């Protein structure tokens, strides 16, 4: 599919800037780093504010890159691993995590929504081995080959492993592009992406360290709130997937009419 089907935003359009402002993209952290300073506007009551006019074209460039990847059928991995807190109902019932998992169910989109496993990109053999072990245990458990305490241990292993690998266990471990939304282990992910030559798009707050920024292909300066993450997923991932799905259905309908 040609990338000309992408939606074009006018980065100077006030409506687009208002949209980003409504999302809260401009709200930064109380801390700033030298690498993020060029994207900041001023400090408001202890909180750094991003310059929307500077980051709007960057935000749109990232969306266009995602859409192009979808249309060209590149393998994309979504990573969303925020700091977890089981006592906080908002963090426990993360709407972005639910959104990503829905994309996985409907479109087969690969994702990681638990803690990012170090070595995922740089040690593929170990990852493939762990995923295959999970598949074998799931199959043997269904066949009723375990019982008693061993069955209980296997079930515990499968539950833990599924939290880690559910979004990628049925995928080939080959990704040309990674989208990192709210990722606590961004430093590790960015370093591995740099080493393996994997393209990385990442939302980065004002406190993101310069050495991390240097390892990211597309830095999106701004707040990584649920609203911002959901907008990026909808415009960059879901909408182009819907277009492709509709075109596929139209082709099937046309073939059936010809028959």
What fraction, in percent, of the residue positions are helical? 40-55%
CATH superfamily: Glucose-6-phosphate isomerase like protein, domain 1
The strand order across the widest sheet is: 4-3-5-6-7
Rg: 20 Å
Distance between the termini: 25 Å
The helix-strand sequence is HEEHEHHEHHEHEHEH
Percent range for β-strand residues: 5-15%
Specify the CATH architecture.
3-Layer(aba) Sandwich
Shape: globular
Annotation, overall tally of beta strands: 7
In the predicted model, the low-confidence regions spanning at least 5 consecutive residues are 1-8
Q: Which fold name fills CATH's third level, the topology?
A: Rossmann fold
Number of helices: 9
| Multimeric status of the protein | single chain
């Amino acid at each position: 599919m040609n990338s000309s089907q992408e939606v074009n935003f006018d980065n100077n359009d006030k409506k687009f800037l208002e949209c980003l402002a409504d999302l809260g993209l401009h709200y930064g952290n109380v801390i700033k780093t030298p690498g993020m300073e060029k994207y900041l506007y001023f400090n408001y009551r202890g909180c750094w504010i991003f310059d929307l006019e500077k980051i709007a074209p960057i935000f749109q460039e990232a969306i266009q890159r995602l859409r192009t990847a979808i249309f060209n059928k590149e393998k994309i991995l979504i990573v969303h691993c925020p700091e977890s807190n089981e006592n906080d109902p908002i963090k426990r019932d993360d709407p972005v995590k639910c959104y990503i998992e829905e994309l996985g169910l409907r479109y087969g989109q690969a994702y990681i929504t638990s803690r990012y496993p170090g070595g995922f990109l740089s040690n593929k053999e170990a990852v493939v081995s762990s995923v295959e072990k999970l598949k074998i245990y799931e199959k043997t458990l269904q066949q009723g080959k375990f019982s008693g305490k061993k069955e209980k241990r296997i079930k515990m292993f499968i539950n833990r492993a599924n939290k880690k690998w559910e979004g990628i266990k049925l995928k080939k471990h080959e990704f040309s592009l990674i989208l990192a939304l709210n990722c606590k282990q961004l430093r590790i992910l960015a370093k591995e992406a740099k080493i393996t030559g994997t393209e990385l798009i990442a939302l980065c707050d004002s406190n993101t360290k310069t050495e991390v920024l240097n390892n990211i292909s597309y830095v999106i300066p701004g707040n990584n709130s649920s609203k911002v993450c959901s907008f990026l997923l909808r415009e960059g991932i879901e909408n182009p997937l819907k277009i492709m799905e509709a075109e596929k259905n139209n082709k099937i309908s046309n073939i059936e009419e010809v028959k």
